[in-house]
Amino acid sequence: MYSLPIALHIPDGFLSNGVSAVLWVVAIVIIAYGLRVANVSLTEDRVPLLGVLAAFIFAGQMLNFPVAGGTSGHFLGAALAAVLLGPWIACIVTAVVIAVQAIAFADGGITVLGANIVNMGALGALLAGFLMVAALRVLPKTRGAFLGTVAVVAWTAVMVGAIATALQLAISGTVPLGTVLPAMVGVHALIGIGEAVITVAAVSAVLASRPDLIAIGDPERYAAGAPALAGEGAR
Amino acid sequence: MTCVVHARGLRYRYPGHEEALRGIDLRVEHGERVALLGPNGAGKTTLMMHLNGLMIGDGELEVAGLRVAKDTLTALRARVGVVFQDPDDQLFMPTVREDVAFGPLNMGLEREAVQHRVADALSRVRMAHVVDRAPYQLSMGERRRVAIATVLAMDPTLLVLDEPSANLDPRARRELLEVLETIDRTMLVTTHDLPLAAELCERAVILAGGRIVGDGPCHEILADDELLAAHDLELPAGFDLSAVATRSRPAVGAQHGT
Amino acid sequence: MTCVVHARGLRYRYPGHEEALRGIDLRVEHGERVALLGPNGAGKTTLMMHLNGLMIGDGELEVAGLRVAKDTLTALRARVGVVFQDPDDQLFMPTVREDVAFGPLNMGLEREAVQHRVADALSRVRMAHVVDRAPYQLSMGERRRVAIATVLAMDPTLLVLDEPSANLDPRARRELLEVLETIDRTMLVTTHDLPLAAELCERAVILAGGRIVGDGPCHEILADDELLAAHDLELPAGFDLSAVATRSRPAVGAQHGT
Amino acid sequence: MSGLCSHALELTGLAGDPGSRVHRLDPRAKIVGLFSVTIIAVSTPLAHWPVYVCCVAVLATYAAAARVSPRAVWRRVRFILPLVLLVAVFVPFVRSGGDSWAFGPLTIHQAGLEVLGAVSAKALIGTVGAALLGATTTFPSVLRGLEAMRMPRLLVLIAAFMYRYLFVIVEEAGRMRAALVSRGYAPRNALQVGAMGRMASAMFLRTYSRGERVYHAMLARGYNGTMPQLHPLAFGRADAVFVAGVLAVTLSARIAGATA
Q1: What is the residue range of B77's domain?
Q2: What is the predicted ipTM?
């Protein structure tokens, strides 16, 4: 059970000053835009819900599973968050999770917080979210197509995060790309499978019991903002 | 002075479901402690949610002198304190102090008055010593009492408690009961714990299928085996009702009126 | 035949905390039903977690004929069924059928044998009619019984139940008790519900501060007011122990040995 | 590259003497002070190693003044640092440049060693800095500080609710996991984790209804869309002195290093 877990949290010192700074800017822009697009900054009604869902993502990351050679990966949840909450709210929620991990638990560096938010949250959430929306417009509206797409985007989200991390480490001069990229891609191709299996199982179960809670299920509603969270307002 | 709860023909239907309340007529007078009994799904929680306007049904409902409607909600919620079943739902702030202060602050009280209310409410549930702790550091029994304090701090006319003894060990249950007995408020207590009802309340109302099917002195209701059995209620085997002293009714301005 | 639980000097310390178990010596024979009583924080849950190797402490522990250690976990978990307090922690498959089949499938049984076990386990808890329902559609009492079925389907030697009557209304509690009485397994039941212990178990063990402080026939233990009071236990007010019939001990191969 | 996960819950809570001057500082002062140390260390090249020494000295002084023992610091970083170092230790073998020494099939490169040294020192300072913040400041007051520093209120509120319910939900997840394992669930590869997905969906649905119930409980106590605040923060002279002191020491070392 206590095999070596592999995750993407970059610690302080692994990225160069320039790379860290650029990714901080990227993260801030994404979050600021996310706050506007998600249109939740106007009301605090849904805050408790977003807060507990952030705790859910955090707890979800406790799900360790065996990968290969005695290592284990853990669930990341960016794609699941994007499917359930829509990409922009998923960005905000995962960013809060990653920031709290860094500040309260010293997991992941402060100077590289921007990079971690982008790699582990925003990139995966946005990619998964918009790939889903695009795919759903094209694909037949069947359960199988939907879940198949979920599997692909969940795997892709993990891979893209891993590749981004590898590129950043290489550009920073910490490790050469030729070494870090194959290693990261290799391991995360397997972790991505776990991520995809968990995400599909989770989404199909929610689909069976509370389809109304799947934000991405209906691209038109999703485009209007944050459907799953826009339910009843304050009474 | 009007009575604290006055419902006439109260009905409510969850969208897409059967009616959960099918015409409730209920009066609760000032100072009464009423146990609200009934099987799961009888409508107890739905009725509770109506009392402070978390749900608004058809029919007439006056609580603490206010007609329950959208425009009275702010005033209503200051007068009706609801203690939910799971204290973790009720204690959502980082510390006990902030949690107990939440209601009074929303009422627009000054900081100093709020501090005073926090101290007072916590001491009434014998929890003054945990004021700076985080809710997750407390035992279930302590959390339950702090949850009651969060509501007492708003100085409500009516206290509504949902399953106050759920998940408590016998001692925590006993301590809770002692605390509740010292609180002189009109109380409506939803519970499956019939011995608790017998010890705390002088009146019991049985709800079943969204209707009131029994209403009377608690000891009489609980002694009516047929009535209980007809609604899936029963005292624990070996429980001797007559051995429980009927609590004397607290005399809190128990003036009856319309 | 060896006894079902045999602990000698069992100790466990949570990292960074005081010892939760401070030397437990306990024997449970085949066919016994033992109530494990004690205040919150006494170590009941910790002890329970040891019985199927969710935690592994110092000292000796043999359960269902296996020494509890990393290499016996798979076999051990097939022999020890743990029913957790909150059925929602245990049931999360889309249907009751899949939930009950989960354990047998993990044991590597054939599909046909699994189907058979599912039907059998559900009928033993009188829940055969919900096999195709989703767990969240069931009442708390039904979920609790399905949770027991998920474990019975693995045909365990020892059944461990954590607070089986928590959050049940009186009728659901009665039905649960009836079901449990018909199950002929060695049982260890953690509970705060002393009347339940009195009705179901012939033996009671009191745990306090990580040690066993009382062990004997259930009726004797529950009649010992001083012992109970010393460990924050108490029967509900008005509960008359003598009115509860002692259940006869089920004769399930109750051969005693080392 | 780190392994927080189920150990998360052990890492929280204050350490040291809660009445110390450090503990009583305004959270903004501690956030600015400690994060400045990290930023200065991280932005310094290895060649100016005395800056690292200076940063470590500041952190050590901070810990001593707060009476946070080295053991308490270790308890907070022990799940993070070893993994960081484990990854960093490969760098000398793969990062080429400068001299190199062969050890059988392996070759150690000087440039790689330099990167290892810099990365280890920076990660150590960053991790210990964050751990010291956590040891001397409750998370809710860190949040109050961040809010006073113009962090978007929505993010602060989400973080506050998240932190409050983290323990509840992580415990729920732990119990569900235990229930899975109890029924003989032991996935051997990434394809056998479907049950975890079921578990995740059950967690999501439970969490969602938790969110609704919490919201109801807030409404029931008069919540009108704005979180009330009980404690105003006060940035005093001690706070200013602290921040100025930390910056003076570390910045002057940094500038001295750069101009040397």
Answers
A1: 5-234
A2: 0.86
